[in-house]
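tool_call: predict_structure(chain=1)
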Amino acid sequence: MVEKPIQSKRPNEVGNYIEPYVLAALNQMPGYRAEKPKTQSGKGQSTGYPDILVTDMHQRASYLECKTSTEKRKQQGMGTFYLSEPRSRETAKVTLDARHLVALFTMKEESQKYTPTGVSLIDIYALPCNLKKEWNSDNIRLLQQPLWQGWAKGRNSLEAA
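tool_result:
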């Protein structure tokens, strides 16, 4: 990664791009196997917590979440770690009794190119967190009973549904 930095226009996407490097490095370590965790139903899912499932030579499992930050952002109180409840049991990626870890990579940024300068491995067993409850919906439910719906029909104005 030092020879070929991660290129990204959006700093918050760098964590996604670092995952393949972490997977490859872990799989080169004797006695360790790293893979993308499967959901409860056995399917692969790229989004959501956790990023990687690591199994050691004694068959002990650890979940690993990859995060990135610049030195400046590490000193700010902005959110870095988010965990949401899965939509259903079948889509849950945490399926084992395992240790939960975060690898926080400190990145140097130059012209939208990111190079790691350090890493911290954090056990999040007792990590203090805030709970943010929110109401949300999707477009299917949102559009089931609109009060008003319209679209420009060849004119510059909207017509009621």
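agent: The two ends are 55 Å apart (CA to CA). Proceeding to next step.
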